[in-house]
Specification:
The chain has 327 residues and is an alpha/beta fold. The protein folds into two domains: 1-27 and 276-327, no CATH class; 33-274, Alpha-Beta Barrel (TIM Barrel). The chain contains 13 helices and eight strands. It has an eight-stranded parallel β-barrel, surrounded by seven helices. The two termini are 20 Å apart.
Length: 327
């Protein structure tokens, strides 16, 4: 039920607009590395000092106006320039819908090509993030088209997809990030049970470690991380073949520990004003994440629109549930 609440909130346009107005309040400042390039570069430098590399996400998605998509493209180009100028250890993660995939495929491809081209000139990798299943095949198409010209591009495989193993094998010669998946998908195309998703996640990780080019393992689950440690030791897989990724602001002690142990570690660093949908999905993805921000979101000092909206949303769900039971 809690997951559904936050997924519902993530799609609320009114709250998304309010979030931009209020800035990084509502608890998001703990998981979003600022609203501008200067702030995110500062965060990257702090992580680099601990031997941690970064992948930078200029937050935003589901854009339906060319002006907004072009503005997002220019911002990402500026991020690439800043990464190069400051000589920080970082690469780019981006969402196709932010760059116009819902407007027109060729328009999005043109924007992406400009980004990948500039990144290629600077030796910077670009990861094309996966979104919901309605954008799955177009995103693979973008990767296919771009990889005809560039070799600094990869994508994400979501373990909750029933066909994830097929996608993994097809794109095994790419640098891939393997994740569990953060969107609410129908039973026809995705596993619904956490145990099934976890099992498939481990299976995909093991297969790509043995057969793939480079594996980014995105998880906060220490049990899975320990399993990976044992697996790479048993199969003599060198550290150069994989990295562990976590989100900015989550399990900081474990991030530092893994980096200090000599593992390649990368932190997913989101920034920008369009942070609301990302923030809500992080809470929906793993209810335990709520503990990290609850004091900031729901305390008396931070009596924000999010707290009011979440309470109203929860009350509405509980009221509906009570009415159904009475019937």
């Amino acid at each position: 039920m809690l997951k559904d609440i936050f997924m519902g909130l993530s799609q609320n346009q009114f709250l998304n607009s309010a979030a931009k107005k209020y800035g990084l309040k509502m608890g998001a400042q703990s998981v979003v590395a600022g609203t501008n390039i200067n702030e995110v570069i500062k965060s990257i430098k702090e992580l680099n000092a601990h031997g941690i590399s970064c992948t930078v996400d200029n937050l935003g998605e589901f854009v339906f106006k060319e002006k907004e998509a072009n503005a997002a493209k220019e911002q990402i180009l500026n991020v690439i320039e800043a990464i190069y100028e400051h000589k920080v250890d970082a690469h780019i993660s981006l969402k196709p819908t932010q760059l116009g995939l819902d407007i027109e495929y060729s328009f999005c491809l043109s924007n992406l090509r400009e980004i990948v081209d500039k990144a290629s000139n600077y030796g910077i990798f670009v990861n094309i993030d996966m979104e919901d299943t309605s954008h799955l095949q177009p995103t693979f198409d973008l990767l296919d088209d771009l990889s005809k010209e560039y070799d600094n591009v990869g994508t994400v495989i979501q373990a909750y997809l029933l066909r994830a193993d097929e996608y993994l094998e097809k794109y095994k010669n790419y640098r891939l990030r393997i994740v569990k998946g953060a969107y609410k998908e129908p039973i026809e195309c995705a596993y619904q049970d956490k145990k099934d998703i976890d099992a498939n996640f481990i299976k995909l990780i093991e297969w790509h470690l043995l057969n793939g080019k480079f594996t980014s393992i995105a998880t906060h689950d220490h049990n899975i991380i320990n399993h990976v440690k044992e697996f790479v030791r048993k199969h003599n897989i060198p550290n150069e073949k994989f990295e562990i990724q976590m989100l900015y602001g989550f399990r900081k002690d474990l991030q530092l520990k893994l980096a200090s142990e000599g593992y390649n570690f990368c932190t997913y660093v989101p920034f920008g004003t369009d942070w609301y949908g990302y923030f809500m999905r992080r809470l929906a993805e793993r209810p335990q994440n709520l503990n990290l921000v609850a004091k900031q979101v729901f305390n008396k000092k931070t009596n924000t629109i999010l707290g009011v909206a979440a309470g109203a949303f929860l009350l509405g769900r509980m009221t509906k549930s009570t009415k159904k039971k009475r019937r």
